[in-house]
Amino acid sequence: MMKSLNAILFAGLFAGLSSCGWTQQSEEPKGPRAVVINIEGSIPYSDETGSLLGSLSMSQRKLEKLLETAASDLTVQEIAVHIGPNDLGLSRAAELGQAIAQAGKAGKPLSCHLDAVDNASYYMALLGCPEIVLSPAGEVEVLGLSLEAVYLKELLDSMGIKAQMLHVGKYKDAAEPLTSTGMSDDTRVAYTELLGELHSQLVATISEKRGIDRAKVQRLMDTGPHSAAAALEKKLVDRIATLGAHLDALRGKYAAGVDRDYGKAPKESLSLSSLFKAFSEQPSDEKENNEDHVGIIPVIGAISLGRPDSFLGQEQAAYDAEIVEALATAADDDAVKAVVLRIDSPGGSALASDNIWHAVRALASRKPVVASMADTAASGGYYVACAAKEIFASGTTLTGSIGVVGGKIVLTGAAEKLGARSEVVRTGERAGLGSAFAEWNSAEQAAMQELMVKTYDMFISRVAEGRGLEEGAVRAVAEGRVWTGTQALKHKLVDKLGTQADAITRAKELGGLPVGAPVRLIPEPKSFFESLGEAFSEPRDVRLELFRRSAVGRAALGFVSVLSAERVVAFSPMLFEIR
Q1: Which of 103, 202, 261, 283 has the fewest Cβ atoms nearer than 10 Å?
Q2: Residue 182: DSSP 8-state
Q3: Which residues pair with 164 in a beta bridge?
Q4: How far is Cα 475 from Cα 494, in angstroms, rounded to an integer?
């Protein structure tokens, strides 16, 4: 059955690409030109050649490289960045915004065109572009930040399902949506302060970049959304034009017009051999190279034990076996002079996080390791970061959440509604601890709580050791509390505010590398056919795909996935999204 499915997939893929007429111009345009760089869709951190879905999106690393190339390309006279709908958070949007701004330092005209504007897209454009162009039918929907949590207890109750959860840390509320009907007072206070800090950064940026008084910025947020005409009048944008009209104006300025496919290599007509070659090759900037370089090791998604078992439709996760191997590879490779640990994770398995922590610490004893935090590096994500020599965070990064949560889902009520019953035969008093058909008794619950306290104490000691702090100082900012990068800097949980590029620059300094030294991903991405050989190890439920499209859904699936394998996890608050 699976072999047939593989054959159907391959045949469908080949036919689909054939029908698209996979051809392109055979050579680059001649003469001066303007180029368009599109930032839209699902934007993974790096190119995953072996992933069928991931390969269809331009990655953050490729976009940053493309901007750098356009800035130095003598044939490129002007850069137009089109920012479409995307799934970036504020921190990664800021990194791309600063990459756009860096390209603008080459002195070439630079503009950002948007069809519609949300917080992250506007933040990117503000940081990156001296000119912001908005479509006539577009709008500016920058209304401040909102955090909407989803509480499922009543739904679970109606299904006869109970989440029996424990936690260590006053603010460690990752399980609260499963056990409560609403937000606790402590959680509400923590989230209000968190949003207030992020909001002040957004308001300050708008005020500085658009020359608008902060009080007026707040009024504009409170009276939005604003149509294109209103946004122009209120100085939120510089000009109104469709993308076509914007590019038409550029086309007449340059001999070679406008290149809308900049950075895409010319392709030959599609054939079976060219298809095989395309999917078998690694990206050119990831090919094996013996030059001294900085290695980047991503820790992206929920932290889990083991290895991935599928490449199609699976929620992104950071598997400890793969990451530990990558860290060991970096340690043994003499050409790797320093490592950037790129983290965008809400945490996950406490055991997997500790496994990675030990490997990071071992590597850091031999080579400089700099942690670079993206949108989120909380709980287990912060756990692994604190073993690095230095930690960089964006001002809007969500981090900290030093705490532990754990438990299990009890299905007794649901089973009874379906006419199912459970009978247990065991040889030990607690042999049924993991059963989904029985709640913990008081002794079992006490044992689990004790285990979680010990895990929490270990978490505290790891942070204290890595950050050079007294354990008492760490406990004062722990309790599961989530901080912004700006707040974390004040609490000495991070060393500097900066982007991934800043972390790479620092890693080069610590590794004794020149500014122009190359940067390589570790491990290299697998080819399509390497991953295809590992695919379809389990059936996938297509109904989950829509759920996976939202950050809330991905976080929930990650939490459930980790909890199904382990009962003690280091996971930051889930089931909410800040936009």
Answers
A1: 261
A2: S
A3: 408
A4: 16
- Distance between CA atoms of 256 and 78, rounded to whole angstroms? 12
| Rg for the chain, CA atoms, rounded | 25
Q: Are 268 and 162 in contact (CB under 8 A)?
A: no
CB 95 within 8 A of CB 124: no
What single-letter DSSP state applies at residue 286? G
| Greatest pairwise CA separation for the chain in angstroms | 83
Pairing of strands 519-521, 293-300: parallel
> Can you give the pLDDT at residue 213?
96
- Within 8 A by CB and 6+ apart from 545, the residues are 313
Report which of 469, 302, 496 is spatially closest to residue 384, judged by C-alpha positions.
Answer: 302
Residue 357 CB-half CA count within 13 A = 25
CA dihedral 285, 288, 294, 295 (to 10 degrees): 100
> What is the C-alpha separation between 329 and 559, in angstroms, rounded?
29
Q: How confident is the model at residue 503 (pLDDT cuts 50, 70, 90)?
A: very high
**How would residue 220 be classed by pLDDT, with cut points 50, 70 and 90?**
very high
379, 572 in Cβ contact below 8 A? yes
- What's this model's pTM, rounded to 2 decimal places? 0.81
Give the chain's domains with CATH numbers. Answer: 29-142+224-259 (3.90.226.10)
SS3 category, 40: strand
Mind spelling out the 3-state secondary structure of 480-517? Answer: CCEEEHHHHHHCCCCCEECCHHHHHHHHHHHCCCCCCC
Q: CA separation (Å) from 11 to 48, 247, 533?
A: 21, 37, 16
How far is residue 53's CA from residue 43's CA, in Å, rounded to a whole number? 11
**3-class DSSP assignment, residue 429:** coil
Which of 371, 365, 359, 369 is closest to 328 using CA atoms? 359
